[in-house]
Amino acid sequence: MPSNPKKYSVPNAMQSQYQEISTLIDEFCLEKLNEDYSLLSKELAAKLARKRPSPLNSGRLNTWACGIVYAIGSVNFLFDKSQNPHMKADELCAWFGVATSTGANKANQIKKMMHIDHFSHEWILPGLVDKNPMAWVISVNGFNVDARSLPRNYQEEAFRKGLIPYIPDNSATEIND
Known about the structure:
This protein is mainly alpha-helical and 177 residues long. Helices cover 46% and strands 5% of the residues. Helix 1 (15-32) packs across helix 3 (61-75), helix 2 (35-50) crosses helix 3 (61-75) and helix 4 packs across helix 5 (100-114).
């Protein structure tokens, strides 16, 4: 169990499914990965439980747990040997007792359903947000720019709209109107 368990809002009707998936996620992440993976994965499981109708009502719960961790891992470069932690997709799926193709398909289904990609800063591990340029790319007047290079007032607006994970240090100069 994580040292600082976070409570997620989950409908009563989905508590049983969420608890089972959450337990599998905790066991796997705390044994093989880390607490950050566990927390993000359980947050994703809670969001899936809140969908109407919840997709967690169909299929095997270990497949859902595998797909959730796989989805979070794929946007955090878990399968890249240069990252720490890292592991092979087949090792992840084997731990959950799921075929690699099934785990990958479930992860892709989840990412599509929840609109998760490398631009989704909500699903990036806290330690990787600063290193992931995709978390900071926004469109300004049709041009993709790194929000960290923009003036503070633009950064504040981007943060307010949920386009960037936080307001970085004020290293950019203000534009005088």
